[in-house]
Amino acid sequence: MRAFNHMDEARSRMMSAIRRSDTKPELAVRRVIHGMGYRFRLHRRDLPGTPDIVLPKYRVAIFVHGCFWHRHQGCKKNTMPKTRVDFWQAKFAANVARDEKCSKALSDAGWTVLVVWECETRDLSSVEGSVRGAIAKGGLLPGAHAADRRSIRCEAGC
């Protein structure tokens, strides 16, 4: 059995600082959407994957993904840790597979899914264009307010 040492305390402190919600990229995207005049809901647990931002009126679900954790291809933040490579490969593969299953479950249920990557939040005008495109694709559905309350679950448990 390995003794808990100072290095473990430092790593634990760093890992506990990683937020699940209200991250800087997510807050930036929320400011953009609010500035566009849209109202939204946060972290709807009744939807697969618990999207970060939901526009129920337009049936648009937005995920703000960190490039490291969700493996943004071609991004410089998509690096592999040097220690415990097998563990990290399996963890990242599971994250990506879960993201795909949840996006598919939402799409199959008639939702438009938009993924905004952490690195994309540097150009907020581009984010605004992506959101406008997703809203145009989602469109305003008659009876959307009643329909979006039903629970959707995918078999992956996302």
Describe this structure in words.
The structure is a single chain. The protein has 158 residues and is an alpha+beta fold. The chain has one domain (20-147): VSR Endonuclease (Endonuclease, Chain A, 3-Layer(aba) Sandwich). The chain has six helices and four strands. Helix 2 crosses helix 5. The longest helix is centred in the middle third of the chain and has 24 residues, at 85-108.
What is this structure's SSE topology?
Layout: H1 6-16, H2 24-35, E1 41-42, E2 53-55, E3 60-65, H3 67-70, H4 85-108, E4 112-117, H5 124-138, H6 144-147
Helix pairs in contact: 2-5
Quick structural gist:
Helix content is 44%, strand content 11%. The protein is α+β, with helices and mostly antiparallel strands. Strands 1-2-3-4 form a four-stranded mixed beta sheet, with helices on both faces.
What are the main properties of this structure?
6 helices, Endonuclease, Chain A, alpha+beta, 158 residues, four-stranded mixed β-sheet
